[in-house]
Design goal:
This protein has a single domain, classed as NAD(P)-binding Rossmann-like Domain (Rossmann fold), CATH 3.40.50. It is built from 7 helices and 9 strands. Helix 5 links the parallel strand 5 and strand 6. Helix 1 packs across helix 7, helix 3 runs parallel beside helix 4 and helix 4 runs parallel beside helix 5. The radius of gyration is 17 Å and the shape is globular. The model has no long low-confidence stretch (mean pLDDT 94).
């Protein structure tokens, strides 16, 4: 039986690239996102993928989706929390309801993923839980008040889970993406950006693959990727 990789936030950028990389690496991939049509289209490009339309901010819907995935394919070997909620604006402009929604997607969904999947993963021999983040997880810039607080909390939660579950054989890693991801929405937003500022989704997926398969004598928790020309 193929190992299973569960991926949240499967869109046309990083999520799709992650799905393709793990599919090519011999995994059966379970795809979670709200857009059923998009998931079905992507599944048609993969081998025996599981399509699971789900709003990860809804804990009941998320648990139902995870239960069905495990019923079909057993405990996952890899889980990647790639779903993201974000909003630009300073603390006076951001709608508090939007910040709360982003917290549900970025932080609470990670909590529910870990609570539902980490125990069976440990029982099944371990695996990897990877969270895709960005530099908002380590700094709060003026126009990121609706986003940075949730990513910082997400990083701390991931670290807490890592310290608890690492000794039990579950590798938890936080992958910071310090770049504009080369996706359709980013191209339309940053029309004047130089080519060297974009990071390729396939390169992010390759790093996630590396983290998921590190030798257990040399696990990373905090990893960063950025284009060579990025100022940091």
């Amino acid at each position: 039986m193929k190992p299973l990789a569960v991926i949240t936030g499967v869109g046309p950028g990083t999520g799709a690239a992650l799905a393709h990389r793990f599919d090519q690496g011999g995994y059966r991939v379970a795809l979670l996102a709200r857009n059923l049509t998009r998931l079905q289209d992507l599944a048609g490009e993969l081998h025996d993928a599981i399509v699971s339309p789900c709003d990860v901010a809804d804990p009941t819907a998320l648990k139902s989706a995870l239960d069905e995935i495990q019923f079909q394919a057993g405990a996952p070997r890899v889980v990647i929390h790639n779903a993201v909620g974000g909003a630009f604006g300073n603390f006076l402009e951001v709608d508090p309801d939007v910040l709360e929604r982003n917290f549900q997607v970025n932080v609470m969904a990670l909590l529910y993923l870990a609570r539902n999947l980490a125990p069976p993963m440990v029982e099944n021999g371990g695996g990897a839980l990877i969270v895709t983040g960005n530099t908002s997880a380590i700094r709060g810039k003026a126009q990121f008040a609706g986003f940075a607080p949730t990513k910082a909390a997400q990083r701390i939660l991931a670290e807490s889970i890592a310290r608890e579950m690492g000794p039990k054989g579950l590798h938890v890693a936080y992958l910071v993406i310090d770049a504009v991801i080369d996706a359709p929405w980013a191209r339309s937003r940053f029309t004047d950006a130089p080519e060297d500022c974009f990071i390729q989704p396939s390169a992010i997926a390759e790093e996630a693959w590396h983290l998921a398969h590190q030798d257990r004598s040399a696990w990373s928790f905090f990893a960063e990727v950025r284009p060579f020309a990025e100022t940091w």
